[in-house]
Specification:
Elements: H1 5-33, H2 39-62, H3 72-95, H4 98-105, H5 108-120, H6 126-142, H7 155-174, H8 180-201, H9 208-234, H10 237-240, H11 246-259, H12 265-293
Helix pairs in contact: 1-9, 1-11, 2-3, 2-8, 2-9, 3-7, 3-8, 4-7, 4-11, 5-6, 5-7, 6-12
Length: 299
């Protein structure tokens, strides 16, 4: 057992990095399809494929338990948050570069700090406020005047970050202990059902390759969430937080490979500042613990 412990320790970060790669692939493929198809059609098919993939993978093993939940209201609210976030981020990907969009979405952790004080009455400390300042400063640098991103379209990734923050806040507030597959299934079902009326009205015939790609992206989304859930089984969420920022690296790499889009030096600085704010939030408890162990000066 002890001999396997190092492997299990490293499995959490590796799974988290793999999940972030899957999410970056999802965004890259979605951005490619937005050039030819309506956004709502893409999101609708993606959620339908995600729900179907989770059902096919887990229903034979879990049976009816896959649908059982004690928190229907929480599942509905979280599903709506993610559905709105998906609609916003796909609109962002249709109008903005992949890497910059991904970086702006990652201000969600600093928004959680703000919302935690308002909703959960959690007191933010100096390091938390420093992280919040870093996040907003990074967004301002990326969306600087003359940088090409200071348009109304930048509200899409900011809105996505707000939706993601609300999703995580309600999850923390409810302290739900649902099976990850159940939550993943309800996320896909709620998104698919909510978007069905508009998805059918906006439907445009798709090439077989594009349709298969979109269905594959729904499967990629489901697998990404499952990988993230598995990562949390091997390591605590706090220690995995820093590894989630590898998605910015993957998005930059895939944006260059797929679209020949490379952020300029100032945008890269803004992305690094956003990542620094998130990392500061992740390491804040450790830094406070270390500070508490230091000897106090003479009074």
């Amino acid at each position: 057992m002890d001999a396997n412990r190092p492997t299990r320790v490293w499995l959490g970060p590796l799974l988290m990095c793999a999940a972030c790669l899957f999410f970056a692939v999802l965004d890259t493929g979605t951005k490619y399809l937005t050039a030819d198809y309506p956004v709502i059609q893409l999101v609708w098919v993606r959620y339908t494929a995600q729900a179907l993939a989770v059902f096919l993978i887990f229903q034979p093993r879990m049976g009816r338990n896959l649908f059982r939940t004690r928190h229907y209201g929480v599942q509905l609210f979280r599903g709506l948050c993610l559905c709105c976030g998906s609609m916003l981020v796909v609109n962002a990907l249709a109008r903005l570069p992949l890497a910059e969009t991904t970086a702006i979405v990652f201000i969600a952790p600093v928004l959680i700090t703000l919302l935690s004080g308002l909703v959960l009455k959690e007191k933010a400390r100096r390091l938390d406020w420093a992280a919040v300042a870093c996040g907003f400063a990074g967004v301002l640098i990326i969306a600087r005047p003359g940088g090409g991103l200071l348009t109304w379209a930048i509200l899409f990734p900011i809105g996505t970050a707000i939706c993601n923050a609300c999703y995580q806040i309600v999850t923390r507030f409810s302290r739900s202990s649902e099976h990850p597959a159940t939550s993943n299934l309800y996320t896909g079902l709620i998104g698919a059902l909510v978007l069905t009326p508009w998805g059918t009205m906006a439907w445009e015939p798709m090439l077989w390759f594009d349709l298969l790609l979109l269905i594959g992206l729904g499967t990629v989304a489901a697998l990404g969430h499952l990988l993230m859930t598995q990562a949390l089984m091997y390591a605590p969420a706090g220690s995995l937080g820093p590894y989630s920022y590898t998605q910015i690296f993957w998005a930059t790499l895939l944006g260059w490979l797929a679209f020949s889009s490379v952020p300029d030096s100032v945008s890269r600085l803004g992305m690094l500042i956003i990542a620094a704010g998130g990392l500061l939030l992740s390491f804040a408890p450790l830094l406070r613990r270390v500070a508490g162990m230091l000897p106090k000066g003479p009074r």
